[in-house]
Amino acid sequence: MDNAISNSVQLSIPSIRRSKLKEAINLYGCIRVLETHNPISALIAENVNANDVDSGMNVEYQGFWSSSLTDSVSRGKPDIEFLDIKSRMLNISDIFEVTSKLLIIDGDTGGKVDHFLLNIRSLERLGVSAIIVEDKTGLKKNSLFGNEVEQDQATIGSFCTKIKRGKDSQLTQEFMIIARVESLILEAGMNDALERAFAYSESGADGVMIHSRSPDGQEIFEFAKEYRAKYPNKILVCVPTSYNEVKFNELKNAGFNVVIYANHMLRAAYKAMEYSSKKILQNGRTFETEPDLLSIRKILDLVPGTR
Question: Which residues of 56-77 are buried (b: 16+ CB within 10 A; e: fewer)?
Answer without folding.
Answer: eeeeebbbbbbbbbbbbbbeee
